[in-house]
């Protein structure tokens, strides 16, 4: 029986209201936001398919983003969300994409509990002429992609870094897994806008080859070596067929904007590999920030700096969380 995973952590982020009635009506008419995790090819490949239409719309509302900014940060947060199935226990993963292009980059974070948050390093992104397509390559330059994993009980994060090769967030993350973690992995994300610039569909897919089970034999024979070579050839052939099916995927954003179903893609696109959906889980744009958190941070400042704030800054203080856009008004009475 497929499991259902529901968020049970209460966050205090200020959720900006989406007031566009036409958009709200559309969101009610399409498949709900969720991630379906599946396995296929006799357990040799795992995957995740995500509808993140509401996630991207909430992110956009909270961060007050334009179309280009929504496209960049939306794709980044969809990629971060798709890394949740790779987490073990309570874990948090952050992606930092830094380049010398006009968009500069972003920092996004996903938590194993199911929330995603993040920010742009440049907002708004400077544009010299009207956009001709949705290719983000002109807005990124040379730079690095850094992935940090922080698990429960770890004293310091596990850090991996690769150079930006493709100026495409999903492709560069795929390259990171190949280089840093040496695992066959693929990402695909898509955001669909209507003619008025509304986000009417958004989502992504993740596939990953699972490591082989079993240990190494201490005794090698010609027959064993031939069997290993044959098995490796079979694995490569399987991955090539899976990759071909993955490449044939329709635009995910358009699929969800048209009311497409999650399982139609999973069981249709990968039918020859006999996929099995094992878990549905909720993924949302959220943040563990709060007014109380920021009040504690301010109170922990050096005494001289805190005294200067209390004497000279306006009351209440306004603090904006760069990861979710929440604006908190903190009365000075909370700081004494």
UniProtKB/TrEMBL annotation:
Keyword annotations: Chaperone, Cytoplasm, Disulfide bond, Redox-active center, Zinc
Any one of the GO BP annotations: protein refolding
Superkingdom assignment: Bacteria
GO-annotated cellular components: cytoplasm
Keyword Zinc: yes
Gene Ontology molecular function: protein folding chaperone; unfolded protein binding
Name of the protein this chain belongs to: Molecular chaperone Hsp33
Species this protein is from: Treponema berlinense
